[in-house]
Design goal:
Layout (H helix, E strand, L loop, with lengths): L11 H15 L11 E6 L5 H12 L3 E4 L13 H10 L4 E6 L15 E6 L5 H15 L6 E5 L6 H12 L3 E5 L15 H4 L5 E4 L15 H8 L3 H6 L5 E3 L22 H22 L3
This protein binds phosphoric acid mono(formamide)ester.
Length: 293
């Protein structure tokens, strides 16, 4: 069974193939319709972009979309994730897209006979976000070799940071982090001073402060966080001419990034969302082909 639940599920060649297919679809190529297949989106955590861009992508494939609402499902009667997914497999679903708060939830699902695309697992990984981020960078630079990237924000709790760090490093980029001590993750790369590196970076990726995942308060006011770790106008003005600003969103405006910079010239934040739908079309096509559905 070919799943995409973490970036290590994909070879570098497969990643490049998905990026190029995403760009082709953005440029007007069409996917083959598959009215015979059923897909269900199981989101146990909130989502706007991931859930709905998968839905649009699924409709463009002419897949039958079975909407699953965790709040009215039998999960509320104590049914396990495995039994929920097995039920969907047995009633005829062909693909599951799952977001769950539990790290590596997919390890419980290895006995299923239905492919899984992860929409994010706890603080683990977010592969479809990583792939759309890669597509956005590739669109700008045409390569990842020697790209100088900083990821600023809540590194410790971020599945986006983990997927992007692992993948971008594999592809030859230099990835460093900017964050307060409480957001450091010792298992990832070097933490640097934002103001010392801002003038040399190609990609400035900002991450959301994930208030919902913190055991305790951040210890910094929003204003202090913005001043020390956010993209202010002063820092933006020091960026290289071709540098781009990214954020997986949702954005805490005036915390990770100044409100006025969210749609600035170098910002790709809303373009990432546009690319996300095309990348999810490419991911669905890949899963359909690899699993011979
Ligand atoms: N970037 C992202 O995963 O957004 P959602 O939580 O809205 O899906």
């Amino acid at each position: 069974m070919k799943n995409i639940v973490k970036m290590s599920d994909l070879t570098n060649e497969e990643v490049f193939s998905l990026i190029k297919r995403g760009l082709e679809l953005k440029n007007g190529k069409q996917v083959s319709p598959r009215e015979d297949l059923y897909v269900s989106n199981l989101f146990f955590e909130n989502s706007t972009r991931t859930k709905h861009s998968f839905e649009v992508a699924e409709h463009k494939h002419r897949l039958n979309v079975i909407n699953f609402d965790a709040s009215t499902s039998s999960v509320n009667k104590g049914e396990t994730l495995y039994d929920t997914c097995k039920t969907l497999e047995m009633i005829g679903c062909n693909i599951l897209v799952i977001r769950h708060s539990q790290d590596a939830y997919y390890n419980e699902l290895t006995n299923l006979n239905i492919p899984i695309i992860s929409g994010g697992d706890g603080s683990g990984e977010h592969p479809s976000q990583c792939l759309l981020d890669l597509m956005t960078m590739y669109e700008q630079f045409g390569t990842f070799e020697n790209l100088n990237i900083i990821i600023a924000g809540d590194i410790k709790n971020s599945r986006v940071a983990r997927s992007n760090y692992n993948m971008l490093t594999r592809l030859g980029a230099k990835v460093r982090f900017v964050c307060p001590d409480i957001f450091k993750d010792e298992t990832l790369g070097e933490v640097v001073d934002f103001d010392e590196v801002i003038g040399e970076v190609d990609v400035c990726m900002l991450l959301r402060v994930q208030h919902e995942r913190h055991d305790s308060k951040m210890g910094l006011s929003k204003e202090e966080y913005h001043k020390n770790f956010g993209l202010t106008q002063e820092r933006y003005d020091k960026l290289k001419e071709k540098a781009i600003v990214m954020h997986p969103a949702p954005v805490n405006r005036d915390v990770e990034i100044a409100d006025s910079l969210v749609e600035s010239e170098k910002s790709r934040i809303f373009e990432q969302m546009r690319n996300g739908m095309f990348m999810r079309q490419a991911i669905l096509e890949y899963i359909i082909e690899k699993n011979k559905l």
